[in-house]
Amino acid sequence: MARAKVSEVWDAVVDAGALSPDWGGLPGTDALTHAQVMERLQSADLDEWASAAARVGFCSSPVRLVGSSLTVDRTSGEVVRQYASSDEPGGVTFVRCGNRRADRCPSCSRLYAADTFHLIRAGVAGGKGVPESVAENPLVFATLTAPSFGAVHGRRAHRRCRPRAGPAACCEHGRPTACFEVHQLDDPQLGQPLCADCYDYESHVLWQWWAPELWRRFTIALKRRLAQLLGADLGDIASLQYAKVAEYQVRGAVHFHALIRLDGPQAGDGFAPAPSEVTAGLLSEVVEQVAAEVTLAAAPVTPDGTTLVLAFGAQVDTRVVRASRRTDDPDGPLSAEQVAGYLAKYATKSATDTETRDNPHLRRLHAIAQRLAAQAGAAQDPNSPYLLLGRWAHTLGFRGHFSTKSRRYSVTLGRLRRARQRAQIHIATAARAGTTVDLRDLEAELLADDTDEATLVIGSWAYAGSGWANAGETALATAAAARAREYARRRACARRETQSA
Q1: So what's the pLDDT on residue 334?
Q2: Which of 205, 276, 393, 427 has a C-alpha 20 to 30 A away from that of 309?
Q3: If you average pLDDT over residues 23-38, what whole number do you get?
């Protein structure tokens, strides 16, 4: 198996046979990194390094741990397995960094996206311990946006940006309020205000700061409205479940994508049939109505400031989701795979957008967030809700989680990760015994709670550092991960072609 992993590392190098300092196998690397790559590829312990890198999925910045662990039978107290980092090459154990951000670790980000996909899909069509009957409950895919804080350049479905009849008018600062360009995706003007002096930067930052609370109030108001429609306490006849991710728009404002599902009352394992009075279409209408009505009075930053009344933007989109495969009708209901793919993609990229896009508009939002935090500190009010705003300046004031769900929407990420660890143990055991294992037959066992385990793991570990030894090893691991992703994509395409044939 080690030789196969070494081949993955070599295959990641486009021109692996050109063993010279100026080879172009890993574009974007400097001469020193090239030298480090070649040193690793020709090292005597390449097999061990490749196997260690493969075990963490060629993570870009794995965590290095030192220590040991014992696996003990809960009943007899017998030691079933023992493991120590001293037995590994270099005396350390590598563990995935677990970063969901694609710009930090593509490998772990892809794994996080896959887990999110299965979490989302299970809440739409069942699976992973969720009954398939959940697909019969009303389900809506909603997008809630931020309001307008000023006119910005944008793409208008191949139309001109902001055309106006007659001569273009100007704002009070002498800048035109119209734009006749048809912007391309890579246009640096996208998201930039037509007039930065007219743009309400303070309200933008404060809306971001209160966006999580606005979402919380939206869910409360939605439950109350549904209770009114049903004429009873909602908890007695139904329950509202959701999975939500936040994504940055090109103007630097977050908007929420959410799957909202109506179940029956919370009893037993949940996922009971929803009341027949509420259809998916009616749920969609109620979501739009509540999103347009919910407001929040935000406290002023300084004692002499003005209280802002915050709300969601006027652009609220809701679509019914069905569990069956989507047809060619682009206006038809979304499928489980489609919406799960959407949210998984947003969950891994949303946190990076404000840092990877460097432009005057985002820099100004960052500066405004820092200034508002300084003003809140200068006011010397220990109860001010903005004292920690400076810590979130890098996210332009947004302090919420980028991916959240209600408790009973579906399986948790923790259970999925635990199931993957158990699956790896089964696979390794089968490989040593020379047998095969069908994980589909073991799904209930893999997803079982920790209390159902027949064994107990006792360990003592210490942090020894993060990352590979040098930039060359990091480049190799990242390139091998990219190669693995491309291989997986090709296999998926081949499977789809075979199924459609």
Answers
A1: 64
A2: 393
A3: 71
